[in-house]
Amino acid sequence: MSSHHIVRDAQEPALLIAETNISLETIGQLLEWSPIVVVLEHCLEEVLAWNIKIDKVIGSENNQTKMWELTAHQQPLEIVVLKDELLKDQIDFAISHLIAQEISALSLVIPAALLPSDFVHYLPNIVLIFFETEWKGYFVPQGIFKKWTTAGTLFQIEAGHTISQLIGLEEVGNNIFEVSATGLISFEVAETIFLKEKMV
Q1: How is the beta sheet containing 143-149 ordered, strand by strand?
Q2: Tens of pLDDT along 42-82?
Q3: What is the CA radius of gyration of the chain?
């Protein structure tokens, strides 16, 4: 992937990289619309090896000299220094920072140890889409969910939650549903749930 210097549109989803265990193909897809790219310090060296343009780095004050040295060739970029080194706090800061900049959607790559539900309280202010190598996930609010998708696509819902009024979906495993035919699918949920979708 080549470096890119493109004027960003704040309406495009930003990208927060807090974990590097993801395929470069997926990262490439997320970069297609030239989002604002935010990287946490513990991922910085590996992300730089991907040869992509970074816009912001968030890290602890103990490592600010190293962050500046590593990103010298990427200037201009913004380095945000925090006193807190806890990963969850750095991610929380990043999300709040982007909301303050009126970013309306954010793609996140986070460690498996952190759960999307840890971030559900941001929902009124920003759309969050979580990415793994094979899956993407997002919150579905109470009510009827509709989406056009292709036959064979798999969806997985959180354990302990149920969906009803299924149209175009068949349950094929424990909380796993398959799209029966290309077209519009829909279902109803009684509360906000986290839905994972298998990426082709």
Answers
A1: 143-149, 183-189, 164-167
A2: 999 999 999 999 999 999 988 888 999 999 999 899 999 99
A3: 18
Residue 31: CB atoms within 10 A of its CB come to 17
CB-based contact 37:18 (threshold 8 Å): no
Distance CA(158)–CA(154), nearest Å, equals 14
CA–CA distance, 6 with 81 (Å, rounded to integer): 25
Please report, for the chain, the start and end positions of each structural domain, with discontinuous segments joined by +.
Answer: 14-133, 139-198
Model confidence, pTM: 0.87
Give the pLDDT confidence of 86-105 residue by residue, as tens digits. 889 999 999 999 999 999 99
Asked if 39 and 74 touch (Cβ cutoff 8 Å), the reply is: no
Q: Which of 97, 124, 93, 127 minimizes the C-alpha distance to 12?
A: 127
